[in-house]
Amino acid sequence: MDTPTPQKKSRFAFLEEPGGRMSFLEHLYDLRTRIVQALLGIAVGMFVGLSVSKYVIGFIIRPMLKALREAHLEDHLIYTSPTGYISLIITLGVYIGLVIASPWVLYQVWLFVAPGLYKHERSAVVKFLVSSVFLFLCGIAFGYFIMLPYMLKFLVGLGSQGPIQPLISIDEYFSLILVVLLGLGVVFEMPVVIYFLALFNLVTPAFLWKNFRYAVLIITIIAAVITPTPDATTMLVFMAPMFLLYFLGIVVAAVVVRNKRRAQTIADSGAA
Length: 272
Known about the structure:
76% of the residues lie in helices and 0% in strands. It has helices at residues 24-60, 62-70, 84-113, 119-159, 170-187, 190-199, 205-210, 212-226, 232-271.
């Protein structure tokens, strides 16, 4: 009795997956729907952000006030124009609103692209979004709880040792922490970037390890550019997590290479 041979999977099997038969007009209509939903989410987020921003200001200025007290200075900030405080509330509310709305916006993006992806690609996109948001928030938390206290203590302490006393504007302080926190949030995305570079065979674990000395040079330059203080302690505090993230990226690249080799081995054995 002949054993039935398994049918080969059609090269156009992706057309049979849900969402693969949407017409061009249906895609345009879906895109319009997702954009409208995302904009509505941003509007709601900004409304909430503007409602709570004046209460969040106290949390944001806490590291600065602590640094002023430790330097035996008056713990208060100033604004230099009649609209300075209200402008800060509005600006902060906009940023808070964007943060609040970002999960909803990412969800709308996901709903738009998911129908055109394979099952394993959908899983990869979900992991990418979750890991990116998690690492970005870790970078912001590191900047607020660790980086800012060291940096502000140095800056305020340096200015309070002479006859010139600091008179710090809330606008300039907000601009400073915005650059630092967002910069650290982006820097903490390093493992995700290495993951995609390894996925497309642009880097390998051996390559990353072999060129570690160049990574040290690049990390040092980035720390010198982003860190607004010239002292070595603050730079080392900034560089330490970057080195850890680089080594984590090597581990991630090793996992990617191992999974690709395993998939290739399974594919070769199946073809044989």
